[in-house]
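User: Watch each token:
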Amino acid sequence: MRNILKSTILALTAVLVMSCSGELTDNAAPVELVVTNTQNLTRLDIAPNDDVDCDEFIGTINMQIFPKNDSAAGALTQVRVSRYRVTYRRTDGGTQVPASFVRSIDTLIGIGDTAGSNFTVIQSDALRQAPFAALQPQNGGRDVETGRDIIRLEVMLEVFGETLGGDNVSDSTAFPLEFCYDCDGCF
């Protein structure tokens, strides 16, 4: 009897999970939001310096709206982008990452239109906290987890919006960044 009960609960759980995951991944919107990036900098020197390259934007996030089919036309297929989330993943073997964050934005994009913007992908106070603080000379100049003088991250930026008809849309893009202290500037 216990085995039958366990099997029934397991089967119901599997059906529930599969039905929910399809609901979360199926997008009923008549359009797709496609997010890409153009990267200008791949290495950031966090030491105070006068390198003009360190004042440059890391890159640009490009957002486009494409119809899913021929019937996706009209004012209701415009997308209002309302927020973005930035998360991080270490690519150098370390595990400490800056805190994720969400920012509000307000951009309206129509089918076939492209909107580009300079998004904040690292908050300035994050550079004084773990894992970056370990790179400063007074803290040893090396990442405590990897023993290296460079921290490598993948930055993931997810953009969220809604068609004017009320359908949710989202997409994401990712790019690599390296952080170092007093390592010949940014490039």
